[in-house]
Amino acid sequence: MIITCPKCARKHKVNPDALKPFADAGKKNIMASCKSCKFKFPVALSSLLSSEEPIDMQRRPGSLARKICITLSKGGVGKTTTSVNLGAGLALAGYKVLLVDTDTQGQSSYILGKRPGAGLTELLTRELTISDCLTEARKNLWLLSGGKSLAGVKRIIDKKSFGAEFTLSEALTPLDDQFDFILIDTSPGWDQLIVNVLFYSTEVLVPVALEAMPLHGMSEFIKSLGAIQKYKREIQLKYIVPTFLDLRIKGPKLLYDQLRKLYPQQLCKPIRYNENLADAPSFGKTIFEFAPGSTASEDYRSLVRTVSGNEYALLK
Ligand SMILES: Nc1ncnc2c1ncn2[C@@H]1O[C@H](COP(=O)(O)OP(=O)(O)OP(=O)(O)O)[C@@H](O)[C@H]1O
Ligand SMILES: [Mg+2]
Fold first, then answer.
1. Which ligand minimizes its atom distance to the CA of 273?
2. Atom 8 of ligand 1: nearest residue by CA position
3. Average pLDDT of 53-82?
4. Is 194 close to ligand 1, i.e. is its CB under 6 Å away?
5. Segment 97-116, tens digit of pLDDT
6. Do the domain assignments include residue 57?
7. Residues near 80 by Cβ (< 8 Å), separated by ≥ 6?
8. Is residue 55 included in any domain, yes or no?
9. What is the pLDDT of residue 316?
10. Which atom of ligand 1 sits closest to the CA of residue 272?
11. Could you write out the DSSP letters of every residue in 235-284?
12. What is the domain-level CATH number for residue 133?
């Protein structure tokens, strides 16, 4: 449980047991005092005591998470939408999932309707422990949130003179045996944090928007991935997920056929264009909660089956 000082933004860990007597005595608020800047501010007890349950770190001993990054340098192709809904779908299917948001836009928490007090930044800077940085977003679905503060982390990584590309791996490795899937959403572009994500992940999922020039973005990305593979052999381009498929127009279908010829092994069933996917985030809901009967929900359920290799997952 974390309180953030509204004045200096310093994060403080709070022991819930110390707060219970105040709640039991009927108090609604307590006065908190920042240990760093000494600022005093009121905090609603309900917001503290209703927060997440303790983290269940019990899993099958010995099994390691599959680490899948969802990435493409091009912006707006459906990376975050796919990360969140694939993660939520795998969680609904009973897998234990961690979603890591490495984007400064911090969209994953918004889509899941969460405002975490801490996330990936605090983990990478070692300000807080792993369990303090994780947010339980749904049953089986945990979030390491991103956001603006990651910009500072990128500067720290840039300044490292040795082993900078392993910064993320070093911080996340203790979680390898705690989850079935670790999904990593990335920002558009190409920077030191994305290189870190590729050095950490073992599988790559690329969403490709079926619009003008998707193949150009793909081939550029495959070149960059090839450069990483020289140093990290086990990373593989596993899934290509066409997004924004609109069958009413000819272009997307032609692009889909081209992708099928070029990448027959990796190509997955497309995610169709569906406005529910654009509307769900403002309600803080996944597609399965917002529009369970939609084509988008059907398409993401199918992706869950492909990625998990479980043909019975989320069948109606
Ligand atoms: N299949 C779809 N049909 C309709 N709208 C979609 C679909 N997939 C995603 N969207 C919407 O398109 C926009 C871009 O999607 P998203 O944010 O997932 O892309 P992104 O690749 O993560 O973008 P960025 O590169 O900026 O991080 C969002 O508003 C999202 O809700
Ligand atoms: Mg995104």
1. 1
2. 78
3. 80
4. no
5. 999 999 999 999 999 999 99
6. no
7. 101, 103, 105, 107, 108, 111, 185
8. no
9. 67
10. 1
11. -EEEEEEEESB-TTSHHHHHHHHHHHHH-TTTBPPPPBP-HHHHHGGGGT
12. 3.40.50.300
Quick check: 124 pLDDT over 90? yes
Give the residue, 129 or 62, on which the prediction is more confident: 129
The finding on whether 81 has its CB within 6 A of some atom of ligand 1 is yes
Question: Could you tell me the residue range of the domain that residue 10 belongs to?
Answer: 2-49
Question: Ligand 1 centre from 26 Cα, in Å?
Answer: 45
Q: Range with the lowest mean pLDDT among 81-85, 156-160, 274-278?
A: 156-160
What are the pLDDT digits (tens) for 204-256? 999 999 976 667 888 889 999 999 999 999 999 999 999 999 888 888 888 99
Mean pLDDT of the chain: 89
Ligand positioned closest to the Cα atom of 274 = 1
Ligand 1 atom 9: the closest Cα is on which residue? 78
Residue 2: how many other CB atoms lie within 10 Å: 17
Side chain identity, residue 9 = A
- How big is the CA angle at 269 (ends 266 and 273), to the nearest 5 degrees? 125
The CA distance from 254 to 234, in Å, is 32
Looking at the domain assignment, is residue 26 inside a domain?
A: yes
79 Cβ closer than 6 Å to some ligand 1 atom: yes
